[in-house]
Amino acid sequence: MAHDLQVEIRRLASSDGLPLPAYMTDGAAGMDLHAALDANITIEPGDVALIPTGLAIAIPAGYEAQVRPRSGIAVKHGIGMPNAPATIDADYRGEIRVPLINLGRAAFTVERGMRIAQLVVA
């Protein structure tokens, strides 16, 4: 099970004070990723914004990480990911950044610390 897998996480300065990804329950498949923004970003309907998380991870060989949309902001605000699920390969060591698309009818503001996506290790 992926919960027993060791994944190294490197916190970039932009993520200071934000929670690290963690499984919130024993049955959770994914861990929340938070927006590591210096200033709010407003996504207009039809637009895409790349949101930094301030985290870099080291996935062991033979595994991948998938970044998936959060159902809460999808249902309430029409916010999704244009490339869902996004794949993070085992050899990628850069910052995780989440592309969000506004499929809703109103502008949506992403704020620092907002839960923007789920990280699933497979």
Structural features:
mainly beta, 10 strands, 122 residues, four-stranded antiparallel sheet, globular
* Number of helices in the DSSP assignment: 1
How would you describe the shape?
Answer: globular
User: Strand tally, please?
Assistant: 10
Helix content: under 10%
Return the structural class. mainly beta
The ordered H/E elements are EEEEEHEEEEE
Low-confidence parts = none
Strand content: 35-45%
Largest sheet: 4 strands, antiparallel
Termini separation: 9 Å
Could you tell me the mean pLDDT? 94
Q: Mind telling me the C-alpha Rg?
A: 14 Å
- Spatial strand arrangement across the major sheet: 1-4-8-6
Description of the molecule:
The chain is mainly β. The chain is built from 1 helix and 10 strands, in the order βββββαβββββ. The chain has a 4-stranded antiparallel beta sheet with strand order 1-4-8-6. The chain is globular, with a radius of gyration of 14 Å.
Topology (SSEs and partners):
Layout: E1 8-11, E2 31-34, E3 41-43, E4 48-58, E5 65-69, H1 71-77, E6 79-80, E7 86-88, E8 95-102, E9 108-110, E10 115-121
Antiparallel strand pairs: 1-4, 2-10, 3-9, 4-8, 5-7, 5-10, 6-8
Give a short synopsis of this structure.
This protein has 122 residues and is mainly beta. The protein contains one helix and ten strands.
